[in-house]
Hints:
The complex is a heterodimer.
Chain A: E1 12-17, H1 26-31, E2 44-51, E3 58-60, E4 71-72, E5 77-78, H2 81-87, H3 97-105, E6 109-113, E7 120-123
Chain B: E1 4-13, E2 28-31, E3 38-48, E4 55-65, E5 79-82, E6 95-97, E7 106-107, E8 115-121, E9 126-130, E10 137-140, E11 149-154, E12 163-173
Amino acid sequence: MTLFRSKDAHSGELMLDHRASPGIPAAKAEAMGLDPSLVREGKVAHLRTLGCCHCGGVWIENPLRTRPRNHCIKCDRYLCDACAAVTKEPGYTHRSFQELADMIRSGKFELTGGDLRRPVLTRSVKDG
Amino acid sequence: MAKRIFTLLGQTFTAQAVTANLTNATYGAIKGGSATQLTDILEVSVNGMATASTVAAMCLARASTIEAGAVTALASPNSDGAMHPASAALAAPPVTFVAAATNGPQASAVTTDPKLQFSLNLFGGIERWNASPTQQMSMLGNTAALFGELILFNSSTGGGSSGLCNAHMIYEPY
């Protein structure tokens, strides 16, 4: 039997509590990308956060997004837009953040260029 | 390994721009304890202590340039310790700090680097972010290239104003 897991089960939560506070003025909230009705005086906002399985970053979900949310079928997790764009580059090698961390922590590889999205890995000399 | 809490008490988070060398005692930073250490950030909480309305654009951002000069050891009332009393001492614990000898770290301005934004009014406002398992903010090593340092700061770039608050970060090094 295949067990299907909802990706919603992996979302974090950001709580902004302004019950005892004047809150964020509407114009400023909009400038900050927040719904003014959620952060005004007397309100508690509960926002969903998602994590990227390739770079280890976290972002606040935009519930009004209409573009497809990026997803890695190998990891079965959401991807941030930046990592999703990298996966479409020629010669891309799939590595989750955990796999990359394991490689570097093993001592057999060193990051000698790039970053976590486009890592340039070199086999450690001591590993022969 | 063992979860730890990095706590900042009664600190004025001065609003500063991304890529600026952050001023001492206006931010909180965590850096990996070794070149290969993996650290997960599990919770960030900010409690406003301002005495007048002050909207802060608190951000948890990766460092694009780590601090210059030696890191200054935490001083009371700030603290960093294991949550469980029986936790074994780490050989290379992550470095938590609010000051460095020469320059503070710089928050990344790279558009593809994620920043968690915790905008709130520090006059009575409370923020708490909890990561779900496997969805935590992660850092690897102790260099900017590996995203090895994270900074909690108040972003003037994001429209924040300087204000007093208490904050903590729960993290777990491996």
